[in-house]
Amino acid sequence: MPKTVLYARVSTAEQNLDHQKKQAEAAGFKIDKVISDNGVSGISTKLSDRPQGKRLFDLLQKGDTLVVRWVDRLGRDYRDVSDSIRHFMREGVVIKTVINGMVFDGATKDPIQQAVRDALIAFMAATAEAQAIATREAQRAGIAAAKSDPRTYRGRKPSFTRESFEAVIAMLDQGVGASAISSATKLSRQAILRIRQDRSSAERALALWDL
Questions:
Q1: Final residue of a domain: which of 80, 110, 140?
Q2: At 44, which CATH number?
Q3: d(CA 113, CA 136)
Q4: How many angstroms separate the Cα of 44 from the Cα of each of 34, 57, 136, 206?
Q5: Do 164 and 133 fall within a single domain?
Q6: Is position 154 within any domain?
């Protein structure tokens, strides 16, 4: 029987796997199984090199659905994301995202539709890589600033975690409004606006609090 598998990456202790599952369910998905990689960086580790990411390649079969929060869960860069999506499509697996409800499958045989689909995959993969690069640079800047003066006043602890910050950035980059993002992430609209206005400061706050 076809199954729906949610793949999540939880990179910090602050992140909540149950929250990710609830987000997917709120988007209309009925999840049969959850697979999660804990403490693994999606910026530096290929999907096939992650302990649980490897399981996906053996577990998923024709007719199954793979659910991810966003395409950046499926690789560390453009090539990795593209290769992962195309591999699963060749195997007859449908990939769906929680954010924006994107769907990728190999069902269509129409050359025009295939070309449109492939162009969309390329665009999404490029967006994921650009976001990863921006996140990596912001992390470096935030950590450097925090380490430059150990006595630096950390200020109020952020209301968002690394996971929710990345989710907000991903949705902002897709043009999602602050109110919709607030509803999806359970963060206040004010927090969303602060992140939108000054991503570097938000990243620095995460670094200062080691989140």
A1: 110
A2: 3.40.50.1390
A3: 34
A4: 22, 19, 10, 19
A5: yes
A6: yes
Catalytic pick among 11, 48, 182, 201:
11
**Number of domains forming the structure of the chain:** 2
pLDDT digits (tens, 9 = 90+) for 101-115: 889 988 777 777 778
Domain boundary among 110, 135, 170: 110
Asked if 11 is an active-site residue, the reply is: yes
Range of the domain at 203: 125-208
Q: For 46-77, how does the pLDDT look when each residue is reduced to its tens digit (9 = 90+)?
A: 888 888 888 899 999 999 999 998 888 888 78
Establish if 195 belongs to a structural domain.
yes
Decide: 162 and 138 in contact? Cβ < 8 Å.
no
pLDDT score at 14 = 40
Domain assignment of residue 116, yes or no: no
152-207 pLDDT tens trace = 556 678 888 888 888 888 788 777 888 888 888 889 999 999 898 888 788 878 87
